[in-house]
Amino acid sequence: MAGRRMSTPEAIAPTGVKFSFWSSMADLVRLVLRSKAKGLKTRLGVALTLVLIGKWTGVIAPLFIKNGIDRLNHGHSLPQAILTGFIAYALGSTALRFIANTAPYMRDSIFQPVSQMALARSAVETFAHSLSLSLDFHQGKLTGGLSRIIDRGARSTDTLLRSVVFNLGPTVIELTMASWVLTANFDGRLAAVAIATIIVYIILTFSISNWRIKYRRAWNEADSYVAGLAVDALMNYETVKTFGSEARTVGQYEDAMVTYAQAAVKANTSLQLLNAVQSIVLNVGYASIVCLAGYLFVVDPQHMSIGGITACILILQQVYQPLNMLGSNYREIRQAFIDMEQMINLRAIQPDIVDAPDAVDLPPASAKGAELVFEHVEFQHTARSVGLAQVDFRVAPGTTTALVGPSGAGKTTIVRLALRLLDPQGGAVRLDGIDLRQVKIASLRRAIALVPQDVALFNDTLYANIAFARPEADESEVWAAAEAAELSKFIETLPYKMETRVGERGLKLSGGERQRVGLARALLANPRLLVLDEATSALDGRTEAAIQATLRKVRTGRTTLVIAHRLSTIADADEILVIRRGRIVERGGHAELIAGNGEYAALWRRQTREDPGKPQVEPVVREAVSVLEPELDRETETF
């Protein structure tokens, strides 16, 4: 299926992806074959055999009742023999109906592992595809709505298996069998009326269902939107509370629920109309066949008997019973197609960052760390007027390079390019001499660790969050990483130590504690390139000084790329790059840039309130004193 590049939540809505019944069923068959269910072929064969047995026994069971009634009505032997024959036919009919009724239960029991494994495979594949999508997609998605699409799309596979393979298809087979029985044993006109009734029923059912599908789709979209709003608000409840926006947020949710309720009313009202039309058609057909059977009994008693009329009624009931469910099955199928359509739209979105066909692993890490090179890198954001223009620099193995500049200058974009969360639109980014586009993503991510400014944690234990970087690490290594991040003393004070749960996104911890967990996680990964994006911005001065000392130790044998607003934290960097509007406007060491009396020097003076005529304080001493927090707005003015 051809893919499309899209990056907004609206892209998940039904769009130009060609969707058809047969292609969807082919996808479903392939999914079942990929499900890896135990005894797949055997279970599928036995299930289909049980379907045929159940339908055949259900259709011929009424003929036994016919023979029994006719034996009572026209019997000329002894009453005991007549009664014995009738009982035999009645028991035979009962046995056949028992088989017909129990076959579906046996079928479901045997096939259930296959359908559930297919559901699981669908969910896993869609979830994996969602995680592979680009950064732009995930920054623009509604998490709750995306979760619903994955869930409903996976469940649609189970619905289609039940409704199409085991209900709709067998109903057609049963109708064929019933038509043959009516024609062979009674009169072809009975079969013709039954077939005509079912054709009218199917046409009206499909027509009305197709008409009302727009209401069901609107209901679906309203459901996804409501879920997205709720999850978004609950995940950001602190922001809602700190701005006193509970009423406004609830108001938005109420408006969404009103839209949901209106869509639900239209969908359910149209459903009741469909049910009424179906009932009228079936009852008219039922009355027509009963009256025709009575007419045939009067005009041709040789071919139609009292038992025959009874058999026709029972056969008709047997056919109508699944037909009564046909409307429901068709609605389920149509709804499953909508759900699968949304899932297919999601899976049709192609990830921007993928392994090249000839991608290779990074060479083994050297004892000095990685070499990172930006060569004439160009990148333009779709939602910004400023990107990167001709960015050139080299971070030598084992050295530390700092990026400073105003918000929006391009520092984070450089980090994302280094992590290959983005690809350059011009130029190249190389790690240890290899263009990142030629490196296997898994190999690259093992070589780099990021400590972001806002560390997001999983709703799990401290141990699990630290060990996430390297799950195979033993407990001593996890504790060593916590110790290096100045976290171990804090953990020892907790009642459950490493087993303490941190809450959703780590909100049970303070900002500084989250940053230390993020730092411990990065150190445990033992990367050749360590990226620090304001990694100590939420720490107090004393803890920051301790962690800065730790970071100086862990730089040995690895390369470090640092984003900083607080210049005192990067004064000992080997090279400092000053970024402004996507360009490097100054570069050099701390002392060199101060002596140059340019933009870096102006920012340094602003942060330290330093007179430019006074001698500079050594960086190590400067780190020992407290500094003011960066003032981003004023910093932007400076630049």
Summarize the structure.
It contains 20 helices and 10 strands. With 639 residues, the protein is α/β, with parallel strands linked by helices.
Low-pLDDT stretches: 1-17, 610-639
Largest sheet: 6 strands, mixed
Mean of residue pLDDT values:
77
Overall geometry comes to elongated
Distance between the termini: 49 Å
Q: State the secondary-structure class.
A: alpha/beta
CATH topology of the largest domain: ABC transporter transmembrane region fold
What is the CATH level 1 assignment of the largest domain? Answer: Mainly Alpha
Strand element count? 10
Count every helix, treating DSSP H or I runs of 4 or more residues as helices.
20
Q: Domains counted in the coordinates: how many?
A: 2
Radius of gyration, taken over Cα atoms and rounded to an integer in Å:
36 Å
Strand content: 5-15%
Describe it for me?
By secondary structure, the protein is α/β, with parallel strands linked by helices. It has two domains: 17-348, ABC transporter type 1, transmembrane domain (ABC transporter transmembrane region fold, Up-down Bundle), CATH 1.20.1560.10; 372-589, Rossmann fold (3-Layer(aba) Sandwich), CATH 3.40.50. It is built from 20 helices and ten strands. The protein has a six-stranded mixed beta sheet, with helices on both faces. A four-stranded antiparallel beta sheet has the order 2-1-4-5, with helices on one face. Helix 2 runs antiparallel to helix 3. Residues 1-17 and 610-639 have low confidence and may be disordered.
